[in-house]
Predict the structure.
Amino acid sequence: MNHFLDIHKTDKADLRQIIDQAAAMKSARNGQPKGAPDAERPLAGRMVALIFEKPSTRTRVSFDVGVRQMGGETMVLSGKEMQLGHGETIADTARVLSRYVDMIMIRTFEEAVLLEMAEHATVPVINGLTNRTHPCQIMADVLTYEEHRGPIRGRKVVWSGDGNNVCASFIHAAGQFGFDFTFTGPPPLDPEREFIDLARAQGVRVDIERDPMKAVEGADLVVTDTWVSMHDSQSTRERRHNQLRGYQVNEALMARAKPDALFMHCLPAHREDEATSAVMDGPNSVIFDEAENRLHAQKAIMRWCLGV
Ligand code: CP
């Protein structure tokens, strides 16, 4: 069995296999109703626990639908309603759940919770987002880029805004899939140095450019995310708006990228803050393909985890 904890912790060949299988599985569904099972049902007889300690629309629904399409069943659990939220240890929770279910997906706050769950579970554990990374999202984003524009290797991806958990997983993907990455945002919100150094050590360019207009020159893909995260306080929210105002992705910024540059946002968005509706709904935007591809990418991730 394999845990899917982060992109930089997963073998490059396995990442490629997951993307290719996701594309093949998406194509094989060929416009069937969403509730129709896949021709192959590799999760038949399997139960998957989906644990959420934070809100979710895409992750929750796409994992649930994905498991069902592959013939399995799900159990959606809220951290607050479990004993986990009332003092039971993560290790004990992992050991107990492993006796009931075949796989665990968890969305939590601290990365340490995910890692402890994986250490003590005897079934695969999938990272459905922590405060530090969001690998399932970026697998969907790589799939989305490649289905629109071909191989992402050698391309230039520009992230504008907050160097948050989604940005971190994009930097991991740069190193593993072999594309260049430019971060543009204010210094206090830079991505973690450790992640930048790791990608550079893998032979790709990772730049920090404070001027967003310069940063997007030659970009094949422009990405942003909400300026406030689920765990941020009200005072943080106000500070973030002041820091990030100059990094909004709007038509003027997109005009400096390559003419065929794609625009991505993992959603949910605060329209007219981090990106304008003109860009989000414009011809270069693939935001709803990204959302759909969470389903296909995660189905391939689950198959890889279980080896089925
Ligand atoms: N992008 C993403 O993870 O969306 P949700 O928070 O709705 O799951």
